[in-house]
């Protein structure tokens, strides 16, 4: 395995230091990190070094919708986005509701080798919301599932939700809820408010999310279990989670990059790239989720990377699928709205995009401090870079990025998975390829 010396990197945005990556771990720091022969030097002057990013919310679409994404293409996108571990949501076809299917996805991830893939187990059989899936069999499988979610659908029956919360306690699991009251959102096409009224589109009221968040934090308190609220999008949801945490309820919450940056104003152009579940909300909601992330009410940024094939997006608004890609832009969006505005430090970014998600998902070896002896799951970022998002140039198999054409700050220069460079010079390093070749330094892009 190649040994790397990152010279002048700034761990968590702190003071520059040298970092030696050898034998899968952070082998030395500072003056101890010497050059030696055969060491591949990465000039990290001015670059920020973060623990490898961990996403609790990725849709990899395999099995079933390989036209939108595969484990291979999705994890390539993840590595380029600086991720060393992703959680693959259960709304595949067949759904990830048995030990067999979660093991299949886990194996596909291991064989692809771009990042660790942790399958999320479905809460209910077929995500139908009725009968609990075989949660403990998935927990005991090779995939060692700890997070369960019917994401894409809400576990709306309070009795089923209560049972799931009770059940996962046995193996320290967490139920991740897609908070959407189904009756209040029938036929909904966008956020319910001024813009939906103007456009004449069926609205999705904030209360449809907040009612479920409120119910679920109370259920989590009642049964003494862990709840994670996915893609929180309204000011009211932030308030409810803040209240629940103050009360000592074991709840964690996520916000997506798109809900941190974009508003429902964008729907005016009827471009289905902006159609997502939950919908883009108002500027006040965006401000509230930014504040919630800054003050720790919201624990994590999850991408909700939701690739869709062209035919499901290149159509009129009403017929288009909900969802946006996000793995390759997440860190840049967080930099733009939170770091470059002074609301989060890079150390905070390491918390919300690495250590907190690793803790919530019970992912060993990720989200660890950058210290000697720790597994070398690392992401090297150039915060001074700027680039225009071109979906066709991304590794994801789908092009439904809401950031297409936008200039965003920051660029992932390198990603290390247990000491192996998956990305160098912003380019994927094929397994077995010599580092010089793959890094393009000698112009070889064979
Ligand atoms: N977010 C979305 O708009 N879509 C997701 C489902 C989900 O995360 O709810 C998908 O699977 O396409
Ligand atoms: Zn969802
Ligand atoms: Zn999702």
UniProtKB/TrEMBL annotation:
Its EC number is 3.5.2.3. Keywords: Hydrolase, Metal-binding, Pyrimidine biosynthesis, Zinc. The active site is at residue 304. Substrate binds at residues 59-61, 91, 277, 308, 322-323. Its cofactor is Zn(2+). InterPro entries: DHOase, DHOase/Allantoinase_Hydrolase, DHOase_cat, Dihydroorotase_CS, Metal-dep_hydrolase_composite, Metal_Hydrolase. Pathway: Pyrimidine metabolism; UMP biosynthesis via de novo pathway; (S)-dihydroorotate from bicarbonate: step 3/3. Residues 47-234 form the Dihydroorotase catalytic domain. It comes from the Bacteria. Binds 2 Zn(2+) ions per subunit. It catalyses: (S)-dihydroorotate + H2O = N-carbamoyl-L-aspartate + H(+). Zn(2+) 1 binds at residues 57, 59, 151, 304. The keyword Nucleus does not apply. It is an enzyme of class 3 (hydrolase). One of its GO terms (molecular function) is dihydroorotase activity. Zn(2+) 2 binds at residues 151, 178, 231. HAMAP family: PyrC_classI_B. Catalyzes the reversible cyclization of carbamoyl aspartate to dihydroorotate. NCBIfam families: PRK09357.1-1, pyrC_multi. Belongs to the metallo-dependent hydrolases superfamily. DHOase family. Class I DHOase subfamily. This is Dihydroorotase. It comes from Cellulomonas xiejunii.
């Amino acid at each position: 395995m190649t040994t790397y010396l990152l010279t002048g990197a700034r761990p968590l945005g702190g003071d520059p230091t040298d970092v030696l990556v050898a034998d899968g771990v952070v082998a030395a720091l500072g003056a101890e990190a010497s050059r030696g022969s055969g060491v591949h030097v990465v000039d990290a002057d001015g670059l920020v070094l973060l623990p490898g990013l961990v996403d609790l919310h990725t849709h990899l679409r395999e099995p079933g919708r390989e036209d939108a994404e595969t484990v291979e293409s999705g994890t390539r996108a993840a590595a380029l986005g600086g991720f060393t571990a992703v959680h693959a949501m259960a709304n595949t076809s067949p759904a990830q509701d048995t030990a067999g299917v979660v093991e299949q996805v886990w194996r596909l991830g291991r064989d692809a080798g771009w990042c660790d893939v942790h399958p999320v187990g479905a809460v209910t059989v077929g995500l139908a919301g009725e009968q609990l899936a075989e949660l403990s069999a998935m927990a005991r499988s090779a995939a060692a599932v700890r997070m369960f979610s019917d994401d894409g659908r809400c576990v709306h029956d309070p009795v089923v939700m209560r049972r799931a919360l009770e059940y996962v306690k046995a193996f320290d699991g967490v139920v991740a809820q897609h908070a959407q009251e189904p009756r209040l959102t029938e036929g909904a096409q966008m956020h319910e408010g001024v813009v939906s009224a103007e456009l004449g589109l069926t609205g999705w009221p904030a209360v449809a999310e907040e009612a479920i968040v409120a119910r679920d934090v109370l259920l989590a308190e009642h049964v003494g279990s862990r709840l994670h609220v996915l893609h929180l999008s309204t000011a009211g949801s932030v308030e409810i989670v803040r209240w629940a945490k103050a009360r000592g309820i074991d709840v964690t919450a996520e916000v997506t990059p798109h809900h941190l940056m974009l508003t429902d104003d964008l729907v005016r152009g009827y471009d289905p790239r902006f159609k997502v579940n939950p919908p883009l909300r108002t500027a006040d909601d965006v401000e509230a989720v930014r504040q919630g992330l800054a003050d720790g009410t919201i624990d994590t940024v999850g991408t909700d990377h939701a690739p869709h094939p062209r035919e499901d997006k290149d159509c009129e608004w009403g017929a288009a699928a909900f969802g946006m890609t996000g793995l390759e832009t997440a860190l840049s969006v967080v930099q733009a709205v939170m770091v470059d505005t002074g609301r989060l430090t890079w150390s905070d970014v390491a918390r919300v995009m690495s250590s907190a998600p690793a803790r919530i998902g019970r992912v060993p070896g990720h989200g660890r401090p950058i210290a000697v002896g720790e597994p070398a799951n690392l992401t090297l970022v150039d915060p001074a870079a700027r680039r225009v998002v071109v979906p066709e140039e991304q590794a994801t198999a789908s092009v439904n990025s809401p950031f297409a054409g936008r200039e965003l700050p920051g660029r992932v220069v390198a990603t290390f998975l247990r000491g192996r460079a998956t990305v160098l010079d912003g380019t994927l390093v094929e397994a077995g390829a010599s580092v010089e070749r793959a890094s393009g330094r000698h112009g070889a892009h064979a």
